[in-house]
Amino acid sequence: MLNRLPADERRAQLVESALSIAERSGLAAVTVRGVADEAGVSLGVVHYCFDSKDELISAMGDALILQLTNSMNAAFSQVRNATELHGEDGLRELLHMGLSGMWPIIEATPDRQLLTYEITAQSLRQRATDSSDRGAAATQQYRLMTQEAVDFLGECAGIAGTEWTLPTEDLARTAIAVIDGLVLRWLVDRDGLATIAGLDELVHYLASKAMPAKASPATDDE
Q1: Per the structure, how many domains does the chain have?
Q2: Residue 29 falls inside a structural domain
Q3: Contact 46/54 with Cβ under 8 angstroms?
Q4: Domain membership flag for residue 217
Q5: Reported pTM
Q6: Would you state the torsion angle of the CA atoms of residues 191, 194, 195, 199, taken in this order, to the nearest 10 degrees?
Q7: Structural domain contains residue 220
Q8: Cα–Cα dist 74/105, whole Å
Q9: Quick check: 74 pLDDT over 70?
Q10: Domain boundaries, position 109
Q11: Rounded Cα–Cα distance for residues 162 and 87 (Å)
């Protein structure tokens, strides 16, 4: 007998089944029947949870965004325990700690990384061809990724006693663009050493855009 799950749990199960299919065979391979078979449920259950395949794929995009930002947050949060690192050298170490912390997660999930690019590309194509909100996945993905990077850069600068010479959001956008390119290249050639070297270059670039934090002006009471 089919276990009766709460609606949210059933939707999550079906989305994960759809992601598994897409990881193995690509986004085009995702069908309502295939998801039902993968999840071990009837077609009616899938139709009850999702009105259409487009809605299911949108939910897949949302799930990937959540997983991606959670992974970034987990990697970046390592710097919070390194409060002894100060100055320019300390900032460089903090940046290296956070960015290198992402790599094992990426390296362990190549098919899911590829699927992220695939869903992003489909989202952008939809945005160009219709006026619905189905094309919003790419915008939401990069908005959340940029915010994670902004928070990370702010924490690193604060711990190290430095400040950025450029707007933090500009640096975050550049960092995300570089990481995107490095991951895409790695998916092509699987040269992990080159990818790590690229991340190190990103660390040096970011560190070059920082300076010691200005001391707060003294008040009359001090």
Answers
A1: 2
A2: yes
A3: no
A4: no
A5: 0.84
A6: 170
A7: no
A8: 10
A9: yes
A10: 63-212
A11: 7
